[in-house]
Structures are given as structure tokens and as C-alpha cells.
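Worked Example 4.2. Read the sequence first, then its C-alpha cells.
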Amino acid sequence: MSRENERLIGEDEAERAKSCYRQLLAAFLASLMSLSSGTVIAGWSPSGGHPNDVDLNMWTEDQESWVIAIYVLGALVGALPSGRLSRRYGRKKYLIWLAFPMIAGWLICLLYSNSLVLECVGRFFCGLSVGATTVAVPLYASDVSSDVLRGRTGVFFDFMLCAGILYAYVARALLNSLRDFIKVCVLVPITFVAVFSCMPESPVHLFEKGQYEQATTTFRWLRGRRFNVNQEFEKIERSRFDFKVSTECGENKIGNNKKFWWKVIFITFGLVFAQRMSGAGAIIQYSDSLFEMSASNIPPDAACVIIGVFQLAGSGLSFFLIDKIGRRTLLLISSGVITICLMMLTIYFKLSNSGALDNSPWKISVLFILCTFIVAFRLGLGPIPWFISTELIPTENGGLPSVAATFSWTLSFVIMKTFKMIVDSSPIALWATFAALSVIGFIFILFYVPETNNKSREEIRINLTCR
């Protein structure tokens, strides 16, 4: 091989490495809004956690449950219009706008931390950003990523969400004041605005708006100087045309199109249902209370930090595995282990309630069960439902991801608001119900969810239509 050929091959490899780095960087910085969302999710402890804020202890358990769950109402409101708004104004611009309701919400919580009503208002504002982020971040990540990297950039959303939850757990454990805790949380969305502003707009959005030169420049910055932009434009245009034809039901009665759309909706909503009905959201939110109930001698704050570390580890593992062994395989492993853990929790609380675990070293086993549950959840069922719809349909259609996210947050609110009441009165029945629903979720994934790893949307569409 001549030196000239070796030089060209070396340049190609360097260019490919640089393009991968830039795609990952853009998706990673967009996911800083997920980090902000994680601080909101884990930012309030049902057992207090801020002893210097004496006035907060005067709230009733029901009032505290509203403060904890109110952000979910904001999230379901924020998620619904998010797809259309990000399409109209641009993914990047919309994501930057989302930081401001969160900043405003944290500031309201900071200034009026002893007011129940205003604390709820602040948490609601934060929730608006959280819900919209669950739609906008996966859409942006999908737009800037090649088919080969789409899985890893999709997992960034969940990875950074876990990082935000751990950040909140550690800050809550170290800081004695709720006000100090809020100050360190509000820094995250401010930092996001500063660093994400230097990233490019979605090239798909630029193409859709007719800004072809900017779209070309952005694609070449993301994919490399030798990237065939015209071929990518043709692929986007063909995908948009197929989507338009398949949705014109009044003019086109083709059975395959209707079959495809019903399958997409069924898969998307089925995965969301399996995700939420695993009970993971409530377990994360009420993890310190679960340790108090189990009488396991582990300080609640320490237990939360341990769970936060395992969450981050599980999501990091998913990042490295998702493009190697595939989405469907990870979902099956995740769902199967979750089901086993929920069965073990049912047995644990049955033995605990009967007194069989009194003065037993097996009390600490609840930590092992919960950590295994969390790792399994973050391995597949946590991250994949958030971005699976962006793989099944063109990302310029934000309607389905928005509706799916709204459905997800609606389920989350119902579970979050009722979890504490049910787990206090009938913990065994609750865990048994979650276990039964997880079995159904596993069967659903086994028979209905296709593998989308390293496949273009056209290939996925053909496979779904022919199944």
C-alpha cells in the first residue's frame, strides 16, 4: 500500500472518529436538561431530609405527597405540545427555552420555601420543563445521530437523568438546608443554557425549513467533510413523503399503512405502560421511605445515594451495550430481572410484616433487591421507551412522542399520588400487583417489540408492515 493511500485511510479514520465525537457531544450537551430534570425528580424527600427547615415538618403527609407529585402534573402538561413546538421553532432553540421555566420554578421554591402553595407552584413550573424535555431531548439526539450511534445518543437522556438524581441525593445528604439545596439545583439549567448555546440546530429541522446551506454545514460538522449530504436529504425527503402518504387516510386506504401505524402506536404505548407499571418511578421517589419501612438499619440518605450510584451504573452499562446486543434483548433482560425483583420484594415485605425478619441479618437484603431492580430498570426499560418512537417514525413528526410522553406522565402521577397510601396499608398486595404487571410487560416485549438496532427507519417500517 502506498504512503498516499495510507495517509488517506488515516485521514478517513480520523474524520470518522471526529464525527462520532461531535454527534455524541451534541447529544450529551442536550441531555444536560435531563440532568436538570433529575434534580427535580429527586429533589424532594417524603421523610424531610432538611432538619434545619423546621417549618416544613408542619405539613401533613397528604400535603407532602402533593409537593412530591405536583411536578408530574406539570410534566404531562409540558409534554403534550412539545413535539409540535420543537418542530416549529427548532429543537435547539426550544430546548434552551425549556431551561427558563425550570429556573423560575426553582427560584419560586427558594424564595417561598415555607409556603405550601408556592412550593407547589414552583415544582409545577419545574415539571413543565421536565415533561417537555422527555420529548425534545430524544428528538434532538435522534436528529444529530447516524443510525449506528442512535442507540447510544438515545440512552444519554436516561443516563443524565440518573446523574441528576444522584446529584440531588448527594446534595440532599450533605446540605442541612432546603434553601442551600435549591441553590445548587438551579445552577444546572443555568449551566445548560451557557454550554448548549454553542451547539448547532438540528439539521433535519433546518432542511425542513428550507435552510439547505445551514443544514449542509451542520450535517458536515456532525458527520464529516466527506459525508454525502444530498443522499441524506433524499432519505429525509423520502421518509417525509412516506409518512405523509401513510397519514392521508381519506385519500389512501392502503391496509399496510394502517397496519403499520397501529403497530407503532401499540408498541410505543405498550412499552410506556410496561415502564411505568414496573413501579420504578415510585421506588426512586420514595426510596428513603422504603428503607424506613423495612427497618433495615441503613440511614435513608445513605441508602438513596447507594441507589443513585447503581442507577447511574445501570444506565452507563446500557450506553455500552445498546448498540452491541440490541434494544429488544436489553428490554427482555431488564423486564425479566425486574419481575424477579418485584416477586422478591413481595416475599420480603410478607416476611417483614410477620416478624420473621426481626433481628435477622436478612433485613439488609432489601438494599440488594432494590439496587438490582434499579440496575435492571436502567439497563433497558428505563431508557428505551423514551426514544423508541423516534426510531419508528420520522422525527419531524413530534405528535406521537408527545402523546406517548403525556400518557407516561399521567400514569406516573396516578402511581406517585397513590403509592405512599397503598404501600402503607397493603404493601404485599402492591408489590404483587407490580410483579404481575411486569410479567405481562415481559410477554408483550417477547412477542410484539421488534429489534431496531442499526436499522434505518425505512427498514424498520418494512419489517413492521410485513410482520
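Now turn to a second chain, presented in exactly the same format:
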Amino acid sequence: MFIRLGRLAHARRRVILIAAALFMVLAGAWGGGVFGAMSTGGLEPPNAESSRASELLESHFGHQPGDRDTVALYTDPTGELTVDDPAFEQAVTAALDRLPESEVLSWTGYWSPGLTEEERAAYVSGDGSATIATLTLNGADTTERLESYGEIEQAVRADDGRLETYLAGGPTSLHHLQAEAQRSLAAAQLISLPILLVLLLITFRGLVAAALPVALGIMAILGSMALLRWLTHVTEISIFALEITMLLGLGLAIDYGLFIVTRFRGELDRHGGDVGAALAATVNTTGRTVAFSGLVVVIGLCGLLFFPQPISQSFAWAGITVVLFDIIAALVVLPAALAALGPRINALSPRWLRRRPGTVTREDRAWGALAASVTRRPVPWLAGGLLVLLAAAAPLFWLEPGLTNHRYLPADNEAQVVPRILDEQFAAGHAGEARLDIAISGPVEERALTDYLRSVDGIAGAHDPAVHRADTELTWVNVGYRGEVDDPRNLALVREIRALGAPAGAEAVLVGGDGSPAVSLDNNEATTGALPWALAFVGLSTLVLLFVCFRSVLVPLKAVAVAFLSLGASLGLIVWGFQEGGFQGPLDFYVVGTTDVWALAVIITIAFGLVTDYEMFLVGRVYEEYQATGDNRRAIRVGLSGTGSVITRAGLLMVVVLAAMGLSATSLFVMTIGVGLALSVVIDATLVRSVIVPAAMRLLGRANWWPGGPRSSSGRPELPEAASEPAGYV
């Protein structure tokens, strides 16, 4: 199959390249519209109790004046002005009065008419230097209210230079998280692209060769965007998913391009410049490995489909589509380009980067020495490597699950500043206090409702439970709480309220509230509940695929086991670095004391494919050599020394893409994913692939390849298609 694919690419190169160019134009034109079709929501499991509570209250009562969406805080940091000063009042009321009715349904504040003195006190700080106003935004859902927030974000700020204005609430946090994610992505591209271009030139040793994987990445990204736009008509696709498209689209295109171009150059020399033969051999060996490797990455991404949050499934579809396009581009378009270029693949190569065919570099000799040492003394190498992985994974025992919220933004972000000022300067029960929503359906008896509210008030952490809105069919109760949404005490509060018996006459009681501890609890439980199923699917599917690829039982088992160990090490470092603050110094972020469990799920499912990706290129080369010689030890030594340099460079290029995302981010959520994925690649491309995998394969010996392929009449293993053209290249 793969030989025929290589020959087809050579014979139909012009048609393929013209079709690819036309596809990029059409995909770019259609896919560019995806930005306006994507969602900003999808962060919560749709069937969770908190989601059902919000949906019930929203559908029954609608979004009415008095429903708090945003809190605007006005303060004089010097303390010279107070709410009783006319200048303070004039500046704040002028800002609030100019808000358009098309975007804001209502606002309530210190100067609102009809408030009692006790009610007014809920809107002002103890010293009178700060006041808050609560805003009800116009919009039928989160997306529409977020759009309204964007329209009034600047207008609501006081013009008086002596006053500072800060905004908080669900739309504010989501607005800033989205803006920070987009800013981080743009910054990552600005940082990584110049570095990548230099590294690509050095790695590919020529401008023409270096440009090919970038073109493939662009093609894959455009194709993915086009498919994602179509998917927006079928399901909810989050705008955050584009980050996965960009990262994997470019990163894997570079990896696959490097492996195939390197192999093609070697085969071109080996076949005396015969482009057709070189291309057929390249696609039949490295191309085959790329195909299986890409499918492993797709399997990992499919694991995200097990998580109920729509944003998780958005990430899955974004990753799956772009990886599939990367595979197609690497197996069809790149070979066609190589067929058209032939020896000109080495064109525009600086003299200082040129290398004669067959040249053994110092780097190659170093990998050869390491390979010889690992195969000579596999036990200490394997034991040492495993101990390092286990030590790195140890912090997982300290894991405190959390959920992305305002605290994942920079410490000086206004969404962080407002809760801090409210806790420090405002009394309990203030108008901006965070609240849980309780939806009680059915004709509840008045006395039973009073008793129920008294029971809620008796739970530790609950403040001032009161009916917000009610009719004969549904009662909406607000319960105040203090502290963070992922504080264990607030999670316990939600559990205790849910454990209370329903009041007489009630048909059902649902506890929720946008951005509340109920959402955090439901998200944590949904994610941790789905994770074992996702891991089981990814692990078992990978076992089957690797068995088909290598015709072995132990190689797939070892690959999956080592992949999970490698992931455990990187996740342990994430917990130590972000939850415990180990990375705070160099990365400068606010330590929240929890780890976003959904970020961990994203890292696990994406990184599993990436770490298995590099092992497949190593094991694929070992497999070729073993089938050519039947000598397991020699196959490992040749495989490691022959692939060490190119896989390390591929890993370096991938780390640049991922680390740029993590290191340029100011949002802790984006930073965690970027750094976590980069750590996974670093650990795998160094310790795992260069030490643990070859040492384990050396100890397993010929059992690596049991039961093996069909036997020829001579009794020797019959070479499969992938190994029919043995070569000493990746």
C-alpha cells in the first residue's frame, strides 16, 4: 500500500500539488469564517445538576432586571474621596446612567432610589472609599451576555481620574480568559516563529527543505478550520479549540516533515539519484511510521470525547481534524513536492550547513556511544530511568483538583482585584457576595420553605439564604458564600445542601449557580469520572494499533506502560510547579493551590499521542533492522544511534512550539497546558526514548517480536511491506 502511495505521488505530482494549492485557497476562504461561528461557552457538563438548575431557572423566569451578571467596583485608593462626596457620586452615576439599554437591563447601586439604609450599606465599603454596582446584562444566554459585556466594558468606567474602576463576575472572567488565551497564542507565535525558522534552517540544512513542513502545517491548519466551521452547524465548538489546531497543526507537520525529508535525502543518495525509487522507499518506511504514529495521536485526542464538557469535545475535534490533515499532507502532498524537487530539495543550503552523504557527525557518535552503553548494561540504565520517572510523579499524591476561574488570571487582573477588595473592605452580606442558586420545582408550602431556608442557613459557610424569585411552579433561592469556588469548605457546602431533604410540596431541588462551587464540584466529578474510561479507551486502542504495526504483543504493552509512566512524571511536575508554586519564580503567576483537572485531562490525552509518537519512530527503525538481521541487540543499537539525532531535533522543534505557548501565557490555565505538554515531550524525547525504551527492549530480547510475522519457506521471518527496503535512516 505505502509503496503504491509513493509511486502515485511521484507519477501524479503536478496534479497533487495543484489540487493542494487549490484546496488551501478554498479552505482558507471558507475556514476564515469559523471565528464568528465559534462559542465562548461549553465549560460545564450539560447534564450536571448545576447546569440543569441554571437551565431550569433561565427557561422559566428568563433573564430579568435584578439578576446579577457583573459587579462594577469604584474606589479611591487614596481614601480621600468617599461615597458621600458629590464628585464621587457624580462620576459613578454618570458612568452607570450612560450604559445603553440595549446592553444593560438594569443596574443597582448605592444611589439607586428606593433602597433602605440597610440595603444601601450592602453597596459600600466600611470606610466609604469604595462602592459597588450590580449589573444585569442583556442576552438570552452566556454568549449574548458576553457580547453585551464587551460593548459596555469601557463605558461603565468612571471618568474621574481619582477613581479606579474594576469589573468582576462571570462575563468578566470569561472575557479576560478568552482575551488572555488569544493574546498568549499571538505572543507564542511571535516568539516561536523566529526561533523555529532558525532551527528549521539548521535542522533541514536548507531553505527549500525548511519551508516544506511550514507549508504542510499551514495546509493542515486551514483544512482543520474549514472542517471546524462545518462542525459548528452540528455541535458547539469553542473558540479556545483553535489553540489546539495551531499547536498540533504546526508541531506535527514539522515533525513528520523532518522525518520524511531526512529519509528521502538518505534514500536519494542510496538509489543514486533515482527520485522515484527513493520516494517509494521513503513512503514505504518512514511514511508508514508517520501514518501509524499520527493515528496514535488521533486515538489520544479521541479520549477527550469521553468528557462531557462541550469545550473538551471541541478540543478533540480540533485536534483530530488537524492531525488527520497533517497525515494526509505528509503522505500525499509532501511526497509530491519531493518528487517535483528531487535533488533540488538541497537547494539554497548555506555552505556551513552542507554535509556530505554518509558523514558521521559528533552527535551521531554520541548517540552511538549511548546506544552501546544502554544495550551493554540495560539493568542499571532501566532502573535509574524508572526511579527518575517515579520521583517526578510523586507530587501527584498532593493533587488538589480545581476548576479554571478568575484566580487563573494574573494577580493584577481586575477579575482578581474585585474579590480581594470585597473580602478585605466589605462586610459579610454585601451586594457583590458570591451566591449559589437553588431551584425548587413544584408548589412548595410556605412553612416548609421557611424550614428549608432555616436548615440551609444552619450549614457552615451558608449566608443569608433568601427567595430571589418565585411562583407556583418554581422557587429561586439565593445562598451567599465567601471564599473561592474550589475551596473544599464551599464544595462541602454544596454537598450538604444537596443532601437536605426537599421541602414539602417540592418535586425536585437542584443546586447550581453560574461560576459557583456547585459548577466546580460537578466539573471535578464529571472529569474524574470520565478520566478512567478515556484512559482505558486510549490505552486499549493504542495496544491494538501497535500490534497491527509491529506484529508484537510485548512492544505495544511496553509502549503504553512507559507512556503512562512518562505522563505521570510530567503531571507530577505540573502539580509541584503550579499547584505548589515550584515554577512561580521563573514564570511569575498567582499560586491558587489547586490544579485544574480539565487541564490535566487535556495534557494526558494530547501528550499520550505525542510521547508515543516519538517511540514509534525509534521502535519502527529497530523493527526494520531486526527484520533485516534477526539480531535484537544490534537492531536496538542501530535504531537508537540512527534515530537519536533526528528525533531529538524533532522534539526540540515541538518543545519550542509548546513552550512558547506556556511561557508567554499570563492565564494559568493556558500556561499549565503549554508547559505540561512541553514537559511531556522533553521527558519522552530524552529519558524515556533514549534510555528506558532501548533498555527494556534489550532485556526482553527476541520476545519483543513475539509472535512476529508470517514465516517464509526458509523459516526466517518474512519481511512486511515496511521493511522490504532496509535503510539506515529514520
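Notes for the reader: The CA atoms of residues 125 and 424 lie 9 Å apart. The longest strand covers residues 130-137.
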